[in-house]
Amino acid sequence: MACFIACAAEAAITTIVTKIVEKKEKEQKDLQVSFDGEKVESAAKIPFSRKLKWLNRMLWGGSALLMFEHIWHGEVIPYFPFLTAAANPEDASQMLREMATVGVSMAVLVTLVWLGIVGITSLIEKRAVKEAKENAANEN
Amino acid sequence: MTLLISVFAAIICTVIWYKGAPKSEMKVGILCWMFWGSSLMWLVDAIFEYAELGAEYFTPAPADMLNDLFLGLSVVALGLIIWLVILLIKDPKGVVKAALFKKKN
To answer: What pLDDT does residue A112 have?
Structure first.
């Protein structure tokens, strides 16, 4: 009925968080990998704000397409009250229940998948740093 | 059907993105995130529907299937339009800018 609203709400919050994180990360710092005190390799670490943008895109994109589906089914209308279910209390309570179950589950699943992607990315980054260290050690 | 079309769109976009990576001149990544996001959301929707209907979920009426097919294709079209608008606004190759500020001889 309006399950996409839960994801859109999360997207709004994560977008604000991204802006705050971006401000803090004004200068992207290169991760310097040193060996025996000498700088031998450098690798750019993916800023957290960029990783947050992945989540934003999934949430905003998904919410936009789901909203279209709700328009298709006549559940979202372009005039007040915008949600057909909001017109009477019975439908409104069902809509809220759906938002709390389906909507929240959608937001949780998208966030979990994003966490998985971030985890894998971190592992790849760590492996790259390790390889850089090994390369530097072999050169010395 | 909508879920299936969305998943296929996400897979195709990811393959196209991977082929062009690490360059992202066409901003295909945006499409990937958008379709994967919607696919995950529709997956949850499908799970809840399956919990309610059981095996009946897998045998929809032909009319419903056709409607879902149209919806899925429309969703892909909308996704592509959103991507196109972002691409033209961000203009990573500077094509729009070059066309707009082209000097007349």
So the answer is: 97
Q: What domain range is B14 assigned to?
A: 2-100
The number of folded domains in chain B is 1
pLDDT confidence tier of residue A131, bands split at 50, 70 and 90? confident
Q: What is the mean pLDDT of residues A22-33?
A: 69
Domain ranges in chain A? 4-139
**Residues 6 or more apart in contact with residue A45 via CB below 8 angstroms:** A29, A30, A31, A125
Find the residue in A nearest to B34 (Cα): A61
Check A57 against B45: CB less than 8 A apart: no
With contacts defined as CB-CB under 8 Å, which chain A residues touch B30? Answer: 57, 61
Query: Are B79 and A7 inside 8 Å of each other by CB?
Result: no
* Residue B22, domain member (yes or no): yes
Residues of B whose CB is below 8 A from A113: 36, 40
